[in-house]
Amino acid sequence: MLEFHLSNILFTIINLLVLHAFLRKFLFGRVNAVLEARAALVKEQISSAEESNRQAGELRTQYETKLTDAHQEAAKLMADAQNRAQRAYEGKLAQAEADARQLRSQAETQIAAERMAMLRDARNEVASLALLAAAKVAEKAMADAGDQAMVDEFLTEVGEQT
Amino acid sequence: MDAFKETLLEELGTRTVFTIPLLGGIPVAESVVVSWIIMAALMIATLLLTRRLSVRSPGKVQVALESAVEFLNGFVKTNIGRHWRPFAPYLGTVALYIALSNLIGIFGLTPPTKDINVTAALALMSMVLIYGAQFRYNGLLGGLKKFAEPMPLLLPINLMEVVIRPLALCMRLFGNILGAFIIMEMLKFVAPVVLPAIFSIYFDLFDGVIQTVVFVFLTTLFTGEGIKEEE
To answer: Tens digit of pLDDT for each residue in B33-87?
Structure first.
């Protein structure tokens, strides 16, 4: 018949407590520890991934600024070089022009001087010729008026030409 | 027929397997011995299954084990709330024990839950758990105040529930398993060949699992009721 036995109830309670202690330690404890460890692992991996992402972003911005800087630097250098080249070119050109002008003026003065010298020589020659001619005429005694006029004319002509 | 009635009445009681010759003889009932077998099986299975747990590369068995424990944790968390942690292992233990006790009839052993002493012990433990938690997490005064909730008018009913709840838990489990057992016995008596196998699916498997769920669910619910509103 239906009856309660204290020993039976006590045995069952002890059984339950023992089973509970055992399972708590070896089943739920172990599995929960693994679950927690995995959760911690996942959390840590996510945070480390985020950290490295952030670092990568930082590096990228750094590189980008560096790259822009480099570009600017290069452009500046280029412009500088061009400037300098232009200046040098212009300087050289001006120098060359000045040289050429100087040479020309030198040449011109030289030509002028030579021409003057030549003219002077020629005049001297003519004068001496005239003198010679005059002497010859005088030697022959310039008697008539016709001869006198010819000498005068000649001298005037020569004087006009010089 | 009278003989059959006799055997059924016999089944109501508990058979004593042996007596420990101490303090004038302590009787050890069949249900206790079967409980020991269940405990041994559970312990061996636990040790085998949790031998190589790995955080990074869990095997199939570990995944199944983890999902079961996570399911239990989630269930206890939703019903008990913030202080769920210490309750989950006990409720899991009770669930495993009752489920195996209910289902062990399949292997030809007498289900321990057919013994009213076992279900009474389980219900007593539940009572201690429910009201222990109520006083543990609310303090003495807060725990007493809980009896006057949701309104002071319900104080007598709440006080009566201290006895009614475990009694109902005890009787529901015992009655269901005993009823299923008796019906199965009668079926075996009437048609001993095919029919018992078919009905065994319902009475042994389905009813056993349902009663496990009901017992654990109600215990969790009552425990949560006693401490949840504190948050």
So the answer is: 899 999 999 999 989 888 887 778 888 888 898 899 999 999 988 888 888 888 8
Question: In sequence order, what are the residues at sequence separation of 6 or more whose Cβ sits closer than 8 angstroms to the Cβ of residue A7?
Answer: B26, B27, B28
A1 and B13 within 8 Å at the Cβ level: the answer is yes
Are B35 and B114 in contact, with CB atoms under 8 Å apart?
no
In-domain check, residue A22: no
**CA A36, CA B89: separation in Å to the nearest integer?**
15
In a domain, A72, yes or no: yes
How many domains, chain A? 1
Answer whether residue A154 is part of any domain: yes
Query: Using CA atoms, how far apart are residues B52 and A136, in angstroms rounded to an integer?
Result: 151
CA-nearest residue to B8 within chain A is A1
pLDDT band at A139 (very low <50, low <70, confident <90, very high): low
Structural domain including B194 reads 2-230
**Which residues 26-55 of B are in CB contact (within 8 Å) with A?**
26-29, 31-32, 35-36, 39, 42-43, 46-47, 49-50, 53-55
| β-strand partners of B27 | B19
Phi, psi at A63, each rounded to 5°: -65, -40
Q: Do B93 and A8 touch (CB under 8 A)?
A: no
CA dist B77 and B220 (Å) reads: 10
Section A85-95 average pLDDT: 94
The pLDDT, as a whole number, for residue B85 is 84
The ipTM assigned to this model is 0.84
Query: Structural domain tally of chain B?
Result: 1
Q: Provide the Cα torsion B140, B137, B224, A17; round to 10°.
A: -100
Residue A91: give the domain boundaries.
Answer: 30-161
